[in-house]
Structures are given as structure tokens and as C-alpha cells.
Amino acid sequence: MSDKAGGKPGPRKSRSRSVRKGRGKGSTSKESMTVGVTVAVVVVVVLATFSYLTWFVAAPKAVIQPSTMRGFSLIARLTAACSTDDCRTAVAMMNTSVDPSANPCEDVYKYTCGNWDMVDEDGRLISYEQNVKNTYVNSVDSKLVGNATTDSLCRTTEPKAKMGCIYTSCVAFYTNRSSSLQDLLTAAKIDPNEWMRVKDFKELFYLGVRKIVDTGVVSVLNITKRDAQTAVIEVGTCISCSVDDGDSFMKFLLDQAVSIKVVDSASAKRLFKEFVDLDKSLKRVPSAPQGAAVVDADNSMFEVADLDTWRKALSGSHANFSSKSDDLKLMSSNSKGVGKVAAGLNEVSLKVAQLYTLLAPVAAFVALERSEAGRRASTKAFTARSKCLNNVAFLFPVPYDTAVASFLGAEKAAVTFNDLWSSVRLAGVKVLHLGKGLDLSKDAVMAASVGIKDASGLDNPTWVENYDGDFLANLVRYVRLGSRQFRASDFRSDAPLKGGFLPTNYFMPDYYYKGAIETTLNSGTLGTLTAAMLFRMSLPYLATEPTSYIKCLTDYSRNSLKLDMNEADWLKCTRASWAIEVALAATRQGTDQRPRRELDAMHYLRVARTFCGEDERDRVPLQFAARSSADFNQTFECNYPYPVMAC
């Protein structure tokens, strides 16, 4: 399946919701066992692991045939079962990809996706996931661009206009807009001339400490204010810590310093080796272990500057520390490391220490500029838009989610993402056993549920300055005025999962209904997707015996199902099967009646459709889960003996 979007369906090739690929199975039920199916308890466990269509369990006589159903086509029967226009539209959309001439017993993928023809802007066939993402990106892009103010400084406090300004500057950055070192220093409120005028290390120490506090940008040290009387001082970052090619990047950075006349070319060349050596020594200073306790700073931190010097430097900042330096309390979880950083700077020439501490706060931003500069000519507009929507969602989590919900009509949803996610978590701890040698514990599911956090729960920083068209300068302002440390990796990727938070903008359901039974349509994609993510997050806690289990699973698929499944596919199949079962259980929580058989079939088509456009190997979980399900045989009247899973 795939690893946070919605609204009413648009044109056939322009659906503005983003839900990821679902693959899977369903849970066995008493209703699904017809005459001749007296299955032992072991088989029940087995089918709970890999049966895909347990949801098709209804009265034994209500049988859906491959392409007809008592004289009506399957699609016509499903349409008749709908009670809302949205539901009928969803069925019509599914009908565009169904190939009724195919035999689902032989090839469920062809039956569901035989007429799938969604393409990208270049005319290439794309998957369901990518098509949903494309239409989502294009839809939100048009809304954000429309909300961007024409004032180049974006003088506004309205959230949508703010986001529009940041978004348009971001798209420009990835396609045609460069940022200079001077722009970044100006945005950080760092004056290079002031920096290079200092006469000795003590003066540099005062300036450096004050600027770290005032700018809020992490430098060689990271200093935060706990309260008016307490400063927490930790090891910061080195210049090469944000790149892979340290020496090359530092040469590039010094060249940038030469271009803005911070240092002349001859001096830069002469100082380069000492500059690199300093960086290497700072890189070796260990940071405090994660979760280390913050305690009163000990004497190892004051090797170069005594306690009074630290206090005077901090009280001279603009961070509203106590005006009386004697009242300041210094704390750290790594006093020894902080002392080593200060000592390292004190041991090199003043010029090198000046340059290093001047450039360190913006080095990661320069690294991001450098990494994108060579790609701008080939970066497609869609790629830039996709990256920038992620960036804006990361910078403005709460207003972004609210705005996107407004853009796409998600605020009208009867079942919100958070509601469905809560249901998936509850269902997940009830559906635990996966098969012999593969067990998912309740504790693992609960731990994973806690690990995935809705991004809308984050606080937004208070931005008090105007924006401009320079995205990197805007990022510097964000870090300086906000509350998060900048990591270039957050802005280099358009991956949908960042920092352990669940991006709700990618998880808006395809359709919205007020009829509780028809929420099965949303769970067909959204519920399966979230369950698959839950499985992935729980994976480190799985108890497995992979060798014997994988061999058994591979042999079973080949001998009993006539399906060529290699040993690399076992986890895909297990994850998809478990996710489908959890999604179904989540959909039915809180309902008094079981969905009708037609709606169960509709749920199956919605889930299966998320495989459309996938590579052949990625279709294996769909084929496996369908063929290993006795309910699939019953539902589609397949003339196969009920499979018996022994793994």
C-alpha cells in the first residue's frame, strides 16, 4: 500500500483528493461460511490473515456474479444500492476502470483495472495514488496562488494570504529564484561588518552568544530561554553537518563570503585549511544523548569563558533575560561538549573564528540553495508545487489543514480523518494475529498509534515580519521567529511523512457522505491506507520467524493459488491483508447493521482500485489476498475449491 486529501469528484482525470494505495484482506465471519465450508479454528486464523473479501459476507443466497447480477450489471446493481448522488458518482467513477469482460477469478486486477487509463501531463500511465496526488496538488495550488497577495512584501496577517505568499516564493525557489548569502544574513539580522570588526576572542564570544539568542538560529551552540532567569546551552551544529561533501561545500561557502566582501580571495585561500580543521574538530564534539537530563552547568562548560562572562553575554541580548546577570542560571545536558566548542574556537586564529561563527547560522540554508541550484532547469512545475505544498504544510500546520479543508469541502465531511484514524487505532488492537510465525502485539499497535501524531496538533509560530519573494529568506525568518530548528532535509524531499507526524492534507477522503453505511466508500482507500501505515509503524515490534514462514507462504501461493509470488512479496501481502481487515472493522464500528452485500462489493472495488496503474510486482498483494479468500470464491462464484492456508 502506500503511505495525509478530498472534496467532490471533478473531471475524470482531475480528482482533487489524495489517498494512498490500499491493499489487503478482510476478516472472516460466520455469515461467509456456506454449505460445505466447515473450517477448523486454524483455518479461521488463516483466513483472518489473508482473506481479502470477508466484507462480502451476507445472506448465502445473495450472490454477485462476475459481470451480471440477476439480469443487471454489477455496476448498475451497485448504483441502485446508493442513496446519495455522491455514492452514485463514486460508482460511475469506478466503472470507468472496470473491465466486465475479464474473469475476476483468474485476474482480479484486470477485472478491476482493465480499463484504467489515467495519465500524467506527459501522457504516461500513472497509478491511482499518483493520479490522486496530482489532482490534489493542482487543486490546492490554484487556491493558494489565488490567495497570494500582489504586494511583493505580502503585508498581511490573514493565514491564507500568508500561505499563498510563502507558497509562491517556494515554487519560485525550486524553479528559478536563487538566494544570496547576503539575503540570508540580512534575514537573520546578522551584520557581517559588525562581526568582522571584533578585536579579540572575548568580544567575539559576547557577540556570538548574543546573536545566537537574538536570531534563534542554531549556530555552533544552541541557546534557548527557559524563563527570564534560565538559559539552556547545548552543542549546536557544524558547517559540514548539513552536507555530504564537507570540504567542497566549505570552499563554496567561503567563495560566497568573498562575493559579499566579507573576506578577500587571497585570505580565503590562505585560511581554508585552518577553517576545515576547525570544522572537523567541532564535528567530533559529541552531542548529548537523546533524552539526556538538563542540569545546572558544571565547570567543564566554563573552560574558556567563566560564569560571569557567560551571564554578561546573555544578559546583553534582546531576549528579555534578567537585566541582572547575577540572577541568570545556566543549564545544559552536555556542559563538557559546550566547553569543547568554545575551546575549539579559542584555539584557532581570530579571523577563522570570525568567519566560522558568522557563516555557521546560515550554512544549512546555503546548502539547500546549492543543492537545488543545479536542478532548477530540469525541475518540473508539478514537482515544485508538490514540494512546496509539503513545505507550507510543515510551516503552517494548523492554518494549512484548515485552509485545505475549506478548499476541498472537507469541513462538510460526515466522517473526518481524525474520526477514522481513531477507529482504525481501535480496530487495530483487536485484529492482531497475522499467521504462524508472524504476530503483532496489542502493545505494538498502541505504541505505533502514539508514534503517529496529527500535524494539526502542533502550535504555529508567531510571525511578526512581512514576507517577500525569497523563500530561503522567509525560512530564515521562520526559524528566527518561530520555535523549530531548521533541518534542510525537511525541505529537500516531498515525502508525505515528516518528523513522525501524520500529514492530514494527504488523507482527506475521496468522497463525503452523511449516510453511515456509505462511509465504506471512504474506508476503501483512506481506512486501508491508515491501517497500512499503522502496520508499518508497528513493524519493529513484530515477532517473526521469517525463514520458515516465507517459504511456506511462497510454496502456498505457487501450489494452491497458481500465483508466482517471490519471497520479497510476503510482507506486502501480509501488510495489505491486515490493513484491509482493520479498515473494514474500523468502518463498521458504531453501526447497528451490517452493510448490504452490494456495499460490501463497492468497498472491495474501492480498495482494489487503489492498485490500478501499479507495476506488475506491486499487484501481487491484490491477487494473493483475493485468491486466498474463500469469500472471494463465493462472491464471484469462482469454481475453485476453498483454499486452505497452512502458514
Describe this structure in words.
α6 (159-175) packs across α16 (381-395) and α9 (201-215) packs across α12. A four-stranded mixed sheet has the order 3-4-6-5. It has a three-stranded antiparallel sheet with strand order 7-8-11. It has a two-stranded antiparallel ribbon with strand order 1-2. The two termini are 22 Å apart. It has a domain at 183-372: Neutral endopeptidase, domain 2 (Orthogonal Bundle), CATH 1.10.1380.10. The longest helix has 20 residues, at 128-147. β7 and β8 form a beta hairpin. It has helices at residues 41-50, 74-81, 85-95, 108-113, 128-147, 159-175, 181-187, 192-196, 201-215, 246-259, 265-283, 307-315, 335-347, 350-359, 363-373, 381-395, 397-408, 417-428, 442-451, 471-481, 489-492, 520-538, 546-559, 570-588, 597-609, 620-627, 630-636; strands at residues 68-69, 72-73, 221-227, 230-235, 295-296, 329-332, 433-435, 438-439, 453-454, 501-502, 543-544. It is mainly alpha-helical and 647 residues long. It contains 27 helices and eleven strands. Residues 10-24 have a biased composition (Basic residues). The chain crosses the membrane at residues 33-58.
Write down the Rg.
Answer: 29 Å
Low-confidence stretches: 1-72, 497-501, 512-518
Strand-residue proportion: 5-15%
Let me know the number of strands: 11
Report the total helices. Answer: 27
- Main sheet, how many strands, which sense, barrel? 4 strands, mixed
CATH class of the domain at 183-372: Mainly Alpha
Cα shape:
elongated
Secondary-structure content class: mainly alpha
| N→C terminal distance | 22 Å
CATH-assigned fold name of the domain at 183-372: Neutral endopeptidase, domain 2
GO molecular function: metalloendopeptidase activity
Transmembrane segments: 33-58
Keywords: Membrane, Transmembrane, Transmembrane helix
Region (Disordered): 1-30
